Amino acid sequence: MTGRDRVELAQNEPDECHPSYAGKCVPIASDVDCAGGEGNGPAYVEGPLRVVGPDVYRLDTDGDGIACEPRPRRPG
Ligand SMILES: [Ca+2]
Q1: 9 CA distance to ligand 1 centroid (A)?
Q2: pLDDT for 51-71, tens place per residue?
Q3: How many CB atoms lie within 10 A of CB 64?
Q4: Which of 2, 11, 21, 44 has a 20 to 30 Å separation from 68 between CA atoms?
């Protein structure tokens, strides 16, 4: 499994990737959240991935350009 995997014949997933994100195919949906996170979907993406445009889905909560980090840094 790599980031170059493409969605084929998957009727429940869009076949277009959002241009604001690189490294992973972020589906174009009404909302996208990080898999395993607190988001409610309806679409999910597994990170980490890079943000290369407007972070319309707010996947990069700390604004460092890396979205859906596996372990977000939190104080304490
Ligand atoms: Ca981040």
Answers
A1: 31
A2: 999 999 999 989 999 999 976
A3: 10
A4: 11
